[in-house]
Predict the 3D structure of the following.
Amino acid sequence: MPEPIRMRVKLDGDVADVRVLIGHPMETGLRKDPHSDEPVPIHFIKTVTAKLNGSPVMQAQWSRAVSRNPYLQFRIKGAKAGDEVSISWIDNRGETNSAAARIPPG
Amino acid sequence: MNHLRRRLLRAGLATSALAVSLAAGLLRPLRALAGEWPKAAFDATDVSDAMRDIGIVEPVPTGDILIKAPEIAENGAQVPIEILSRIPDTRVIYVFVDKNLQPMAASFELMNGAEPFVSTRIKMGETSALRVVVQAGGKHFMAAREVKVTIGGCGT
């Protein structure tokens, strides 16, 4: 079960400011488990897609160099209160998660 | 004689390398990423190889890409970066860390009203140039800044 996605959307005029925190280990594959001394397998988010009312507004392609529990902020022009912003990701193991939020009045 | 031959050979190699990269550039025009994870670029261990693999050819230096990042990052595992492009028709923002094992860190393709802005946190193995390339109006533009890293963050 992937960890949750936390999203906060703030409307400023017709621009939605979206801040997202994604729970994910983003393992580089270079780290050793401090207890077992075994290498921790690589495990990272490859693609993140953001949509406004179902239409894609951003597609991010990531490497393992994005930090653990990724933070992502972006802005969408032409948004209004009540619109739906959604986020989804897929990682190198094929695991996915998504979340959606309605834009509150500015 | 031998020396001249070597020089000619070297010149020939350089020319064919250029031809290859030109061909690669032509075969891969400024195509949208559209769902495809650019494996070759992410796997590249040299920043110029990574750029070439993704189709970035001769990016133009610009002051219109604003990069906000700490001058000194105490923790290389969490380096906050903020990128704002003032270049009209900004379509894709690419982030590279020259000295990471694999320099290409991320790309952000923008569409349908997304503003030319993104903020995230990345890992940096050591002090390095942080390079941002923007694809806009069919061209590539580049800006860079140095981030000093106190404790590297690639083994984390």
In short: Helices of chain B lie at 2-27, 39-43, 47-54.
